[in-house]
Amino acid sequence: MQTAQLNWAKGVDYSSNTGAVDFLALAKGGYSFAIGRVLYGLAPDTSFAANYAATKNAGLIRGGYQFARPKLSTAQAAAAAMVKAIEGAGGFDGLPPAIDAEYGTDVQGMSPEELTDWVLAWIAEVKSLAGVGGMLYTSTAFLMECLQPQRLKDVPLWISSYGVAHPADAGPITQYNLWQHTAGLNSQLKVPGIAPYNQIDLNVFAGTIAELKSWCEEVNGVQATPMKVMVNGQTVDAYAIGDQVYLLWKDTGLQDKKVGNVWHFDPQYQVTETKVKVNGSESQAFVVDGDTYVNWAALRNIGDVTDPKINGEFNFTVTPKASK
Q1: What CA–CA distance (Å, rounded) separates 237 from 19?
Q2: Which end of the chain is more exposed for a tag (fewer CB within 10 A), N or C?
Q3: CA–CA separation, 75 vs 97, rounded Å?
Q4: Signed CA dihedral, 98, 123, 103, 142: sign only
């Protein structure tokens, strides 16, 4: 598998065993993401909810993992518990949720086929319930001995492998997304925000911080939130994506010329990314349920689109609109 590069994003993973974590210090120390243990089987990790919020407040990309105990519950029950816990702590907005499959009595006696079935069923159930993709955490040895790599080659991989220049290939799997390269740090390895001797694991994402953010958006989808906006005193439909508001194209009274590809933002909506021509200039837009929405900020910068109320610019207020 790949050799880590100096410009790749760094991160940690933690659990209640880690103790207190200063996530602001971690972020200032050059780390970009933090992944917390959400559940040990079906049992909640008592530190997760607070740490999950603190991770986001510190500006770190956040994620969660569940320790797999397949002999104690079905994959569907485990996935349901995972989704409920993460949604209750703030929702899916960073790294894909991970299932942690490793050696122990919880998997003893299961065949590679049975365990792979369980992992894939967990990933499918998470996707069904939350609309987000899942990720597998495991070691190269466990992947080769206890799972079926051929069936998992398209699943995002968080690999653990220590004391090596790079993780070994696992059959057809020659790439990882995340690499846990150091586990259970001691006082000789300083990590900002982590007390000496506290258990913390170090990871790297196979790409830059910008590539990590892009990958998270690709896995989770960009959330399109339905809204209402006021334009010249009239209420019209709009969607918010991040900090951008998109106005229903037909309500602008402008002409459009569409080009683009299909893009899925939210599992409830099939959204088609498109481009529109506004007074000869191309602008980003998208289509939801057959209606075209154009970027609000882009419209405000078009000279011939005027709102007589405020110096030629649109003025709007936002009120909630029930989801479909």
Answers
A1: 47
A2: C
A3: 14
A4: negative
Distance (Å, rounded) from C-alpha 86 to C-alpha 89? 5
Say which residue the tokens 């078009």 belong to: 302
Cα torsion 156, 62, 215, 3 to 10°: value is: -60
HSE on the CB side for 131, CA within 13 Å? Answer: 17
The CATH number of domain 10-220 is 3.40.190.10: no
The 8-class DSSP code of residue 165 comes to S
CB-CB contact of 200 with 191 (8 Å): yes
Tokens read off for 167: 């993780």
Helix, strand, or coil (residue 86): helix
How many angstroms separate the Cα of 303 from the Cα of each of 96, 98, 159, 280, 281?
42, 48, 52, 12, 11
- Among 17, 74, 70, smallest CA distance to 48 is for 17
Per-residue confidence (pLDDT) for residue 53, from 0 to 100:
95
User: pTM score, two decimals?
Assistant: 0.70
In the three-class reduction of DSSP (H, G, I as helix; E, B as strand; rest coil), residue 108 is classed as coil
**What's the rounded Cα separation, in Å, for the pair 6 and 1?**
16
Between helix 48-57 and helix 75-89 the angle, nearest 10°, is: 50
| Length of the chain measured in residues | 324
Q: Where are the domains of the chain?
A: 10-220, 225-320
Report the C-alpha gap between 281 and 305 in whole angstroms.
13
**Which residues face 287 on adjacent strands?**
272, 292
Among 263, 268, 267, residue whose Cα is nearest residue 285: 263
Nearest to 112 by CA among 139, 134, 135, 143: 143
Q: In what order do the strands lie in the sheet with 262-266?
A: 262-266, 269-278, 281-288, 291-295, 244-248, 234-241, 225-231, 318-320
For the stretch 224-233, pLDDT in tens is 566 676 655 6
Q: pLDDT band at residue 307, thresholds of 50, 70 and 90?
A: very low
